[in-house]
Amino acid sequence: MNSDGDLVIEVADLVRKFGDRAVINDISFDVRRGETLVIMGGSGCGKSTLLRHIIGSMKPTSGSVKIFGQEITTMNEREIASVRRRFGMLFQSGALLASLTVGENVALPLLQHTDNSVDEIEEIVGEKLQMVGLSGFEDLKPAEISGGMKKRVGLARALALDPELLFSDEPTSGLDPIMTAVVDQLTLKLTHGEHMTAVVVTHDMTSAFRIATRMIMLGHGSIVAQGTPDEIRNSPNPEVQQFINGEADGPIPLNLSQEEHEHHQHVKPRPFVGARHRFHRKTG
Amino acid sequence: MLKNYLRLNLSLLYWVFVAPFTGQFFSISQIFRQMVFIGVRATSMVALTAFSIGVTLAMQAAHSLQQMGAEIYVPDLVMLSILREMGPVLIAVIVIGRSGSAVAAELGTMKVSEEIEALEVMAINPVQYLVVPRFLAMLIMLPALTIFGNYIGVLGGWAVCRFALNFNTAGYIMRALGSAETWDLYSGMIKSVVFAWIVITIACNAGLHVEGGAEGVGQATTASVVQALLAMLVTNAILTGIFFFGA
Fold first, then answer.
1. For position A231, which CATH number holds?
2. Is this prediction's pTM over 0.90?
3. Other residues' Cβ atoms within 10 Å of the Cβ of residue B158
């Protein structure tokens, strides 16, 4: 179980700096086959940036990211493309192509990367849309459906090639509670039944505890806590408790003004001295 | 900026001329779709522009040439100006304003709404999927529109000669055809192909490198129009120098 063959993602000593400010500050973790890793943390903590490094669309300042045992940080575009065929990604907004219909969006990876006939592709598209509860929506344009529906189409598209690994950026935000449960159950079914591995970035604590086999909480670009859902739920760390219980008061600083931020730096020195002008910008 | 542009051109050459031999074909249906957007829907604007230019050239020529009693040369002047300069340049201007800006805005919107990134993550190369069909469509449609515009421009000249000067239709056609050589047409066509390349690569480059939301899309669209106009006009001067002033 713990042999290297089971490691789907290995992130080691990952650092990414914008100027002097470290958005990702020495992060290491592994993800094994069949696991669902939930990455959580406040807005601007570096979750999305971390995800972009794992999928190879951003290059780190230092450190290594391996997917399926292959180092992705030093690959050229063609090598990255061959790795990307093995995983699916659901974007926060869905990122559907506006000029194509829902059906064409889901069919796109199949048309580009398989030799299936048109009939076979139509069948797969119908099946994937049924999985996300959108049968019969094939001929609508993305502009004609709601935000939550777009996200579900994005999920159907991410699953079109039956990936071994699924990345989801906020899969349940904007979905109603019932649809959230449906999407969560789909993730559970795929990871348990099909041995798919999932990496989910989310704010939604109900959903996070429902699907996670392991959780990582990020803050200021570093890992604040990690463990199983039970370990996280019982964590003595007040930052974790504040976050999972959604409390306004606690150790996590909110909307720091520039002066407060400088004060904060004296208390807790962090390597973004000299970048205070940029601190207000959200990077998440 | 310039580095991005050169990289796009190299990548484009790879996907058009090299990749098809390794089994990675571009989509033919996408090219036809873009030919409709870029070319077919511009025909009415091109026709109106070309007709106005033909009429204007003929009136100006008639005014000057009449003073020397040489209005017989009006068709020659209309024909040569349109084939060599006015046709290729003004139709490129129309296409820059209409289709170049539309391409920049479309790709820019796709960039800011994460669509381009989604393509990359699906292991679909955005240059192959988005730029190649637009590039080939432009390379076919701008010269086609130029030939069409040339006809309409010469028709505009005929309208002036026939109704305001003492020409009959046959006389106009004979004069016009007699004055032009095939090189006059070909030089205009070569220009038109070069302009097509410039216009579409600048528009796609501007769109693919948009940053910063709706405002960025607006700026990129404006920049693509301005840059394409300048590049096209400078190139035109250089090509005219090579074609008609060279050794």
1. 3.40.50.300
2. no
3. 20
